[in-house]
Write a structure and sequence with these properties.
Layout lengths: L1 H5 L8 H27 L11 H23 L9 H4 L7 H10 L3 H26 L2 H31 L11 H9 L11
Length: 198
C-alpha cells in the first residue's frame, strides 16, 4: 500500500488549483451525503419500490460517513485572503452535477444505490487514488490525510454495497443502471485528475 502512495510523478498544484479541487471534493461528498440520506429515510416499502431494510441502514451509514468527509474537506480548503470559501464548494463545471441529479431522481432507489456502488464510488476512489499518488506530502499533507481516509471508506463501501445488492432478489445489471453516464461525467470533469476508463 505504501508503494501505491509513493508511485508516480508528483504534480505541483498552486493554491487556486488545489482549492478548486478540494472544493469539488467537498461538493461531491456533500451530494453523496444528501442523496444516500434521502434513500435511507425514504418511507417507501420494499415491495412498493423502496429499499430493503438492510440497504436503508447501509445508506444511512454512507450518508453519515460522506457528510463527515465533506466537513473534513471544508476544513482543509486552502484559500487566500478575500476569497469566498463557500463559493469554492460548488459543483465542478461539466456534466457531473446533472449525472448525480439523475441518479438522485431515479424512481427506483435500488438503481440509484447500484449506480452509487458500481460507478460513483469506484470513479471517486480512482480520482482520490491518483491525487494521493501525485501529491506532495510537503505541500498537501493535510489533504493526503483526508484522501487516505476517503479511499479506505470507499473501498469498504464498494465491498459492502456489492454484497448487499447481490443478496437482493431483484438483480440489476450495471448496464441497466445509470453507471455509464456517471462514469462519463467523472471523465469530463476537468478539475479532477484524469483517471483511466474502467
Amino acid at each position: 500500500m505504501g508503494s501505491e502512495v509513493d508511485a508516480g510523478p508528483r504534480a505541483w498544484r498552486g493554491i487556486d488549483d488545489l482549492a478548486g479541487l478540494v472544493g469539488a471534493y467537498c461538493w461531491v461528498e456533500n451530494r453523496i451525503f444528501e442523496v444516500s440520506g434521502a434513500w435511507a429515510t425514504d418511507g417507501g416499502h420494499h415491495h412498493e419500490g423502496g429499499l430493503a431494510p438492510a440497504l436503508r441502514v447501509w445508506c444511512a451509514g454512507v450518508s453519515r460517513r460522506h457528510g463527515l468527509l465533506a466537513a473534513r474537506w471544508a476544513e482543509r480548503l486552502p484559500v487566500r485572503a478575500g476569497v469566498d470559501r463557500a463559493a469554492l464548494m460548488r459543483a465542478p463545471a461539466g456534466p457531473l452535477a446533472g449525472a448525480l441529479g439523475t441518479m438522485a431522481a431515479t424512481p427506483d432507489p435500488r438503481v440509484g444505490v447500484e449506480t452509487l456502488v458500481q460507478s460513483v464510488f469506484p470513479r471517486l476512489r480512482a480520482v482520490y487514488g491518483l491525487h494521493r499518488r501525485t501529491s506532495s506530502p510537503v505541500t498537501e499533507g493535510s489533504v493526503l490525510e483526508v484522501l487516505a481516509a476517503a479511499h479506505q471508506n470507499l473501498t469498504a463501501e464498494i465491498s459492502s454495497g456489492r454484497g448487499l445488492l447481490q443478496e437482493s432478489p431483484e438483480a440489476l445489471t450495471r448496464d441497466a443502471a445509470l453507471g455509464p453516464d456517471v462514469e462519463r461525467a467523472f471523465a469530463e470533469t476537468s478539475v479532477f485528475p484524469a483517471v483511466p476508463a474502467s
